[in-house]
């Protein structure tokens, strides 16, 4: 297995897609490339390096540095190779005396205005300017010292051209003295990220890079710290602070980001066992060399002082923690679990798998429940986020996953985004969307809140349907009403791929007057003309795609909305071809994988029901134990049964259910009622306050395995350092299983994946050898698709005929009234992730130090609120306090907050309402009242006191 890679070679300009091939000669070497390819890239394809500074292969050619000039037979002058396209029969010369003289002259000018402090420069050995000076043979600079940008003082006194370093950003330093104004950072911000935060101010000698206004710093500007500018910079002008602190890396390990469901590939640049920097891989098929602030910079939590590195136990949750050996902790846990089963029955304990752990680790945890505990009491955090995706898409299409890959975005003509905030929650996908919008694609956003994607610079048409929380089904069915009544559906597709008679019944349902935009407007508060305009735009677009997130699934009708979305795609033929599809944006790095691996109580890996005799017989043969055919308990059932005294033990790996699950008081009461709670995590999280055993987990940098992203892409995770706790997470689960009689003997995660492939049809062709060879694959990966399946449902739906399902709107039980007149909806912010356990232990807290409540100016005025005031948010379930921000991003009657900080405990106010089909909690609709407050609520103070008490650790003998 490969754990060391050679850095990606920069080809100078982006690859070109063309069916037409052109053959030319470069320095006498024949090379054939697609038409439209630059001479520079063609030379690189032939193995010939042309010097360059302003060019790089993830940005459009620019042609400003003049270092890449070449001579072409029959063409006057010396054109820039980066901006000159190839032509048939062209003959190019990259090395002549004239070219050499030009290049040395250009480089001499650059060096004359650059500090020659190479020995002490942070980029020494990793500087393109330094490399190019050697490549062109520059050995001296003839220009006398004079006016420049790098000297703080000249012979005449203070130098007005000099600018101090900008160290405002916690992750990188901007040193304008070293800037060669190549424009690469500015272009990366525009072309790759799409933020347009950087600019070139001034002209000629006065040109310089600026983060916005002249007075702005990087921290104060619109910069989102994605790192694209740092990655693009050819000098030490923009450089990671870790490189300045640690030094240049000595080896590179390719791995996968452990944050959101985009699944970005990264090259971990290492020095020994220390991460120097994380660089997004250009060959990453999900991210193509881009990243966000979290994946690029926020990996320091792995070595944070809060990491728990030794196992701990305690008899009661009121006792202080006691550090013990691994043997003691595992013996304690196994004994208590077995005793609990002896006292209360085999079904009295269960597991919760993690969407942050690897596929292999998740597979073992659900196997622990089924093969060792003897029950199917296994569930996962996907229950509280995307379980309606599995149910809804399974019923309509026959498979529980997204239909297309992210590359499909580049071919879409219109994006319909429902209940998702991709620029914050899935930033790399958001950047790809913005790039497509700038090329003319249309945009429809259905969301109670105005999200940043609507403010994409240089975007064409953009519609915002600001629906009232809880009315998703009504709005999507209203879109279908317009499509069927105006006959905008694709009859040919429906007759071929679906059941025409079934569709006719659905047409009758959707065409009912109660589903018209005019009737629905009273419910959802979206103007009818906007719904009609959106429906027509979606139906008439040649290729339209739908992206949705937790704003769809975390509702009492989450599954119904997913089915309604599938109806839209089928009736317009927007499925099974590039640029179309139904694409759920998964929140955590391995939500898809945790579902694939059989984490739900009614399904084995591969979404096969536990009652299926053939599937059960397969696992009984492989695992060597009899298995139950009865579905186990879902997470909400576990809590309810715990309060009834029937569920007494829980093994919770890598999930903080106290902070992430709804109705916090209900969760904590349930955990308090259990006899044995085992938490396996990096930190003493909120759930650990109610635990009896703390097994220290390992970070993604300390383990081998795979993650599966939102596009079904299986990516390798590779170990970069020795686990600081002594074990990888899969090893800990195996140790616990063996103490309970499991007799497992996996030597490495590769063996676990081999078992997954042997038992799971959609993973049958997956192996570490294949992933090392091709980088990643998308399931199904089997004999029929040995290299995976980027597009699903190309020739037919997995279930056969696509199924249209009636989607009747049923109002949530959660209603506003005199006591609770506002609707609270929740979401995420760019710099923080999920419950914040990782990001809050990085410098990302600079960007978002606390959860904030957004409220409309009219609602704020009615309550006498000003920006920054403390407010009390109260619901029928509980109350909390936080600061307020007055904004028109939310509509009157709607308030919004995030849930990243445990001091807020936003879920103390959310209810226990859930999706009718899957029990996915209704996080997005909570009736609340907002009123002025003086600070933390009584409950928050009580919770903090309990937390402080629960986190006491007895000193060891050595201390």
From TrEMBL:
Q: Give an example GO molecular function.
A: formate dehydrogenase (NAD+) activity
**CDD domains attached here?**
fer2 (cd00207), MopB_CT_Fdh-Nap-like (cd00508), MopB_Formate-Dh-H (cd02753)
Alphabetized, the UniProt keywords read:
2Fe-2S, 4Fe-4S, Iron, Iron-sulfur, Metal-binding, Oxidoreductase, Repeat
The keyword Kinase is assigned to this record: no
Domain of life (superkingdom): Bacteria
The UniProt entry, under PANTHER family, shows: FORMATE DEHYDROGENASE H, RESPIRATORY NITRATE REDUCTASE
Q: Identify the EC number(s).
A: 1.17.1.9
Q: Where is the 2Fe-2S ferredoxin-type domain?
A: 20-98
Biological classification of the source: Bacteria, Pseudomonadati, Pseudomonadota, Alphaproteobacteria, Rhodobacterales
Domain 4Fe-4S His(Cys)3-ligated-type span(s) in chain numbering: 98-137
User: Per UniProt, what is the name of the gene that codes for the protein in this document?
Assistant: fdhF
* Top-rank EC class of the record's enzyme: oxidoreductase
Q: By what name is this protein known?
A: Formate dehydrogenase subunit alpha
UniProt entry tagged with the keyword Repressor? no
Q: What positions does the domain 4Fe-4S ferredoxin-type occupy? A: 170-201, 214-243
The record's listing under Pfam families reads:
Fer2_4, Fer4_7, Molybdop_Fe4S4, Molybdopterin, Molydop_binding, NADH-G_4Fe-4S_3
Q: Which residues form the 4Fe-4S Mo/W bis-MGD-type domain?
A: 250-306
Family that this chain belongs to: Belongs to the complex I 75 kDa subunit family. In the C-terminal section; belongs to the prokaryotic molybdopterin-containing oxidoreductase family.
Question: NCBIfam families this protein is in?
Answer: Fdh-alpha
Q: Which SUPFAM superfamilies does the record match to this protein?
A: 2Fe-2S ferredoxin-like, 4Fe-4S ferredoxins, ADC-like, Formate dehydrogenase/DMSO reductase, domains 1-3
């Amino acid at each position: 297995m490969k754990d060391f890679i050679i850095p990606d070679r920069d080809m100078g300009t982006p690859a070109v897609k063309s069916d037409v091939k052109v053959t030319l000669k470069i320095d006498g070497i024949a090379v054939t490339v697609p038409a439209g390819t630059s001479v520079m890239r063609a030379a690189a394809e032939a193995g010939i390096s042309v010097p360059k500074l302003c060019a790089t292969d993830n940005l459009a050619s620019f042609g400003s540095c003049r270092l890449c000039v070449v001579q072409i037979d029959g063409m006057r002058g010396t054109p820039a190779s980066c901006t000159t396209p190839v032509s048939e029969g062209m003959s190019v010369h990259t090395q002549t005396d004239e070219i050499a003289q030009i290049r040395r002259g250009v480089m001499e000018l650059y060096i004359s205005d650059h500090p020659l402090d190479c020995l002490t420069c942070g980029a020494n050995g990793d500087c393109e300017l330094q490399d190019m000076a050697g490549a062109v043979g520059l050995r001296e600079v003839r220009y006398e010292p004079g006016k420049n940008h790098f000297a703080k003082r000249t012979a005449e006194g203070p130098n007005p051209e000099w600018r101090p370093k900008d160290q405002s950003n916690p992750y990188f330093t901007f040193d304008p003295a070293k800037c060669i104004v190549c424009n690469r950072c500015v272009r990366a911000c525009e072309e790759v990220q799409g933020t347009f935060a950087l600019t070139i101010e001034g002209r000629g000698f006065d040109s310089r890079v600026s983060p916005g206004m002249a007075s702005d710093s990087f921290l104060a500007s619109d910069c989102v710290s994605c790192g694209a500018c740092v990655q693009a910079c050819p000098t030490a002008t923009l450089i990671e602070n870790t490189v300045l602190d640690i030094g240049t890396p000595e080896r590179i390990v390719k791995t996968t980001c452990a944050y959101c469901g985009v699944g970005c590939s990264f090259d971990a640049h290492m020095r020994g066992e220390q991460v120097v920097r994380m660089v997004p891989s250009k060959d990453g098929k999900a991210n193509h060399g881009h990243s966000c602030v979290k994946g690029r910079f926020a990996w320091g939590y792995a070595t944070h002082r809060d990491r728990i590195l030794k196992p701990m136990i305690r008899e009661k949750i009121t006792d202080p923690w006691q550090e013990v050996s691994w043997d003691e902790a595992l013996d304690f846990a196994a004994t208590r679990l077995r005793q609990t089963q002896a006292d209360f029955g085999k079904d009295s304990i269960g597991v919760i798998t993690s969407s942050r752990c690897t596929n292999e680790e998740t597979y073992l945890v659900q196997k622990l429940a089924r093969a060792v505990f003897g029950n199917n009491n296994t569930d996962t955090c996907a229950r509280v986020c995307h379980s309606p995706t599995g149910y809804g898409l399974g019923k309509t299409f026959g498979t529980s996953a997204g239909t297309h890959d992210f590359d499909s975005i580049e071919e879409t003509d219109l994006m319909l985004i429902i209940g998702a905030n991709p620029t914050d929650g899935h930033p790399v996908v958001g950047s790809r969307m913005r790039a497509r919008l700038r090329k003319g694609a249309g945009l429809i956003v259905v969301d109670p809140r105005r999200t940043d994607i609507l403010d994409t610079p240089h975007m064409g048409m953009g519609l915002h349907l600001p629906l009232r929380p809880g009315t998703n089904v009504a709005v999507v069915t209203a879109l279908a009403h317009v499509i069927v009544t105006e006959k905008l559906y694709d009859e040919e597709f429906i007759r071929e791929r679906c059941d025409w008679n079934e569709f006719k019944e659905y047409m009758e349902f959707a065409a009912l007057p109660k589903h018209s935009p005019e009737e629905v407007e009273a419910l959802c508060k979206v103007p009818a003309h906007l719904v009609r305009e959106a429906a027509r735009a979606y139906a008439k677009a040649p290729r339209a795609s739908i992206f949705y997130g937790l704003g769809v699934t975390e509702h009492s009708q989450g599954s119904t909305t997913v089915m309604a979305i599938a109806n839209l795609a089928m009736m317009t033929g927007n499925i099974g071809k590039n640029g179309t599809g139904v694409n759920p944006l998964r929140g955590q790095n391995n939500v898809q994988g945790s579902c694939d691996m059989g984490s739900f109580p009614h399904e084995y890996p591969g979404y096969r029901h536990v009652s299926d005799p053939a599937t059960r017989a397969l696992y009984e043969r492989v695992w060597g134990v009899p298995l139950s055919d009865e579905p186990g308990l879902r997470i909400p059932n576990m809590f309810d049964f715990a309060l009834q005294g029937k569920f007494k033990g829980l093994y919770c790996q890598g999930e903080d259910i106290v902070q992430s699950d709804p109705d916090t008081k209900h969760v904590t009461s349930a955990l308090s009622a259990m006899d044995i709670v085992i938490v396996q995590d990096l930190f003493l999280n909120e759930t650990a306050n109610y635990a009896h055993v703390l097994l220290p987990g390992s970070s993604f940098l300390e383990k081998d395995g795979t993650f599966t992203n939102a596009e079904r892409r299986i990516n390798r995770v590779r170990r970069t350092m020795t686990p600081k706790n002594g074990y990888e997470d899969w090893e800990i689960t195996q140790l616990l299983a063996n103490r309970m009689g499991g007799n497992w003997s996996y030597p490495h995660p590769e063996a676990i994946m081999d078992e997954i492939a042997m038992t799971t049809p959609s993973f049958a062709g997956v192996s570490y050898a294949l992933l090392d060879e091709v980088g990643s694959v998308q399931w199904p990966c089997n004999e029929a698709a040995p290299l995976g399946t980027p597009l699903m449902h190309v020739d037919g739906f997995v279930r056969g005929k696509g199924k249209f399902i009636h989607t009747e709107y049923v109002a949530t039980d959660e209603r506003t009234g005199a006591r609770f007149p506002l609707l609270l909806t929740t979401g995420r912010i760019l710099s923080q992730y999920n419950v914040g356990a990782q990001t809050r232990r990085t410098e990302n807290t600079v960007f978002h130090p606390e959860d904030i409540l957004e409220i409309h100016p009219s609602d704020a005025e009615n309550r006498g609120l000003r920006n920054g005031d403390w407010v009390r948010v109260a619901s029928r379930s509980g109350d909390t306090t936080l600061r307020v921000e007055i904004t028109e991003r939310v509509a009157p009657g709607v308030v919004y907050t995030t849930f990243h900080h445990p001091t807020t405990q936003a879920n103390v106010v959310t209810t226990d309402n859930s999706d009718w089909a899957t029990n996915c909690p209704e996080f997005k609709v909570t009736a609340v009242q907002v009123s002025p407050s003086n600070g933390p609520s009584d409950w928050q103070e009580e919770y903090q006191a309990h937390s402080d008490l629960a986190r006491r650790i007895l000193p060891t003998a050595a201390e």
